[in-house]
Design goal:
alpha/beta; hydrolase; five-stranded mixed beta sheet; Uracil-DNA Glycosylase, subunit E; 8 strands; Uracil-DNA_glycosylase-like; deaminated base DNA N-glycosylase activity; 198 residues; binds uracil; three-stranded antiparallel beta sheet; globular
Length: 198
Amino acid sequence: MYEYEKLKEKIKLICENYNNSPIGGYITGDGPIPCDILFVGEAPGKTEVQEGKPFVGMAGKTFEKYLNYVGLTRDNVRITNTCFFRPIKIGESTTGRKTIKNRTPKVSEVSLFKDILDEEINIVNPKIIITLGNIPLNRLTNFKTIGSCHGVLFFNEQLHKYIFPMYHPSSLTYNRNEDFKQMYVNDWTKLKEALKQF
Ligand code: URA
């Protein structure tokens, strides 16, 4: 556990010293260490920073629903992110009010946390890593887009780990059509099947 405390210190240092672009706080991962199943998301949003845990906002509600659907709970899995701070965009509304929105982390921001995520994977020592969306997929594999590889179990030679790419749960908010939803549900069913071998 000492190793993980050191890792949390490193995350804190990176986030507190970052001043290239606006950020809105940071979090660390959540769940048991070691753990056979590791989910890796993109970056925290407002609710995650408020509560100090990944996937507890709107996308988190969807995520947890499907996690339960395959017979898992948050206590059985480790959940972390590719970028540990909340990337934000500060703007102005038409009435002149200051607005704060989430933004996708930049490549340079993902790179800032490269060693951190690698170290977390080492410490957690999962049998399978489930990437949620394109950001962790691009960081951990050579796949370009989630559309080409979701719902299939791969062995990643570099990491020496099994990887199961999935769409990010927030994609359900953007793709409201039935076909997409069905495909998303099928991917979770395929994950349930894949998990039987671990
Ligand atoms: N989306 C993510 O990718 N990570 C979180 O922690 C929350 C929402």
